[in-house]
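Hello,

Following up on my earlier ticket. Below are the two sequence lines again, exactly as submitted.
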Amino acid sequence: MLQDQQYLRIPGPTPIPPSVQRAMAQPMIGHRGNETSELLRSIKPRLNKVFGTDQDVLIVTGSGTSGLEAAVVNAVKPLDEVLVIVTGAFGARFVAICEAYGIRVHKYEVEWGKAFDTHEIKEHLRNLPNVTAVFATYCETSTGVLNPIHELAAAVKEVSDALVIVDGVSCVGGVETRMDEWGIDILVTGSQKAFMLPAGLMFIAVSERAWDVIRSNPNRGFYLDLVKYRDDLAKDTTPFTPALSILFGLDQALDLMEKEGFENVYARHTLMKKMTRGAFEALEVPLLTNEEDASDTVTAVKPDDFDAEEFRKVIKKEFGLSVAGGQEHLKGKIFRIGHMGYCSPADVLQTLGMMEMGLIKTGKNIELGKGVAAAQRIYLEWGE
Amino acid sequence: MLQDQQYLRIPGPTPIPPSVQRAMAQPMIGHRGNETSELLRSIKPRLNKVFGTDQDVLIVTGSGTSGLEAAVVNAVKPLDEVLVIVTGAFGARFVAICEAYGIRVHKYEVEWGKAFDTHEIKEHLRNLPNVTAVFATYCETSTGVLNPIHELAAAVKEVSDALVIVDGVSCVGGVETRMDEWGIDILVTGSQKAFMLPAGLMFIAVSERAWDVIRSNPNRGFYLDLVKYRDDLAKDTTPFTPALSILFGLDQALDLMEKEGFENVYARHTLMKKMTRGAFEALEVPLLTNEEDASDTVTAVKPDDFDAEEFRKVIKKEFGLSVAGGQEHLKGKIFRIGHMGYCSPADVLQTLGMMEMGLIKTGKNIELGKGVAAAQRIYLEWGE
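Thanks for your patience. The regenerated structure is below:
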């Protein structure tokens, strides 16, 4: 097999554009100097656009999970009651973090592969008057579901004063997000998904209402204390040494997104979802989620007549193509294709072309080219 | 369109593997130090394998054309008579170089798109007793023809003592080459094709018989005087400062080829040719060359009911996909797809997928996915 070639189509980490790689290879700078301040000044307004907020988007060196923990330790106090909407493995992670801090958790579980129903959440919350925060996942990476975050906060506010805290890790930057307009109180994402960067940075923004809660919380930990990050970012600096190479890369990645146009970035992700789903529908291989609940950034496929793990092994060995498997009780039952960040419709076609051959090699009887052709048709109709 | 993404499928320069890019970014070294000697020692035996020769393969900083000129100025004297087999634009270049040096050229012209017939060359040469060198092109890049170089020298030797000088620029490294076994006297290639490197280095090897001729030539120029390169390479050095970054890259590119296995590299190129040709046959878009004459590294397509240039514009604008146009009298009439070097069967599928959509956008009525499916079938049968 051709060496030094891998196709990374898991739902993050995602491939890095060459110009971002080059930007990250810049000579190191001092984290307390003017160059770092200039870098942060260049980054800030673009992060505002991606989040859809006028609040400063804080930049923390850590993984996405550090962002979920930051939301919990800053906005919730031990013994507080919270509602966590669990639509998959990442909803469950919010539960685990809250429990680690002695927070009283009400779980609202949704069948994996389905989005939550906002009306049902509202009715459920009506009976939980002491809940101070509602945790939700925007894109549930483990199932490829995009939850209706845009309507959640308005519904919550009808029945509760609880803060609305959202994990946007595997979609923000790839799907339109209007934090302020939608009334989200805390929004978290990571660098290694739609931002086309390595893992290592976490971005988090906080509403005025949530800052009031955070300021009144006497125990916010130390490294993840968001007040420190907010006060320092206002002066174009950070409380602790940031992952400067990834900041160089972030500046360039935002340049690329701006050059493409944020609206076009989001439209491209929607198109890639439609192409991927259309191909598997044409091949009559079942999808885990229905059209309405499906994420623009990751598609979960649930085969009913071949082995998902065997298929993943075949395409990895034969083509160097990596897609993700299932998690928890979906382990072995699904595979998940990432189509986000540095990924084009032409890359989707290529992934589909390889997967069709992988299906044949796995023993599944399909008509070669049929999925690719369905995706091509969707592309051509989209352009019209 | 997704920024910072281009698909370079011209017949060279070709894409550079990431590990080769990284190798080329190594800190600069002195060209007279031990590090350079070690680098040359590491490179030499692998170049021998690629060329199929026990002679040292000389490394000259220059383009492929500098290699053609080096062959001429070293092995031919002004007023000598030579035979140049012209199967396309690069055969014609040998003519131009010879004429620039006052060499008397007999041209043997073959219809563009066809390979030469060795028997006919032999019969032609029978009537040219004073010819001291026969020039031929291995892969004629301008038409996608792979000439039967493997049988040329044996045929020439039957009727003449002329040296056999071969331009192997757009195929050596991608197709099997046995310089010694086939009796080639001088073989030239460049770095920017099957070697997966930027342009800037030229490789040239010379038979014992040709060295005798070269030594007796009193005017070999200066920079391209191959005796200088030979004497210096025997001491693991070069007469003039070499393009060291590309040497770093060459060392890594040869590592990649060795890791894949040279036989596998050549088989991959044959497969990619078959996939590309099979796709256009399925789509009923005519090819310029017949199966027997077709190169493993580049395929020329000659549409009969759509505009090749319009098609090239569409796929460049829509997908960032570059393929080459025609040269000289084939300008506007063909397009040429490179499938060599850092290019995999999966990349060929992707190129075909994009081109099918480009055909529709150009107004050509094709069945989407049909060419891709034909290529997939060829891939799957190949593996069996």
